[in-house]
Write a structure and sequence with these properties.
Elements lengths: L3 H22 L4 H28 L7 H34 L1
Helix pairs in contact: 2-3
């Protein structure tokens, strides 16, 4: 049976493929694309934060509110950039339709 860490690592490959497709398709709004890449920052921050929580507090990351909240800030940033990127593109599209 695969461990959680192995499954986590394997799940990165489809996401990296997704990023590759979005980047080279040239169809994704730039701000949204930055948001999708920021999700990798969230992952990169969450892993050490989880290790820190386990080593220092002997708890799961989800049980250390200040540390969990700090890590989740990057997820919120990522999601916000994606939403604003697509929102901006919708506004541009509507403005073109009105002309």
């Amino acid at each position: 049976m695969l461990s959680v860490n192995t499954l986590f690592l394997l799940s990165l490959f489809p996401y990296l493929g997704f990023l590759w497709f979005l980047t080279y398709s040239k169809e994704t709004p730039r701000l949204a694309l930055i948001g999708f890449y920021c999700l990798l920052i969230f992952v990169a921050i969450t892993i050490p934060a989880g290790i820190f929580a386990k080593e220092v507090y002997e708890e799961e990351l989800a049980n250390i509110d200040w540390l969990h909240g700090a890590a989740e800030l990057f997820l919120t940033l990522s999601n916000t950039l994606v939403v604003f990127g697509f929102y901006e593109e919708i506004i541009k599209y509507k403005n073109k339709q009105d002309k």
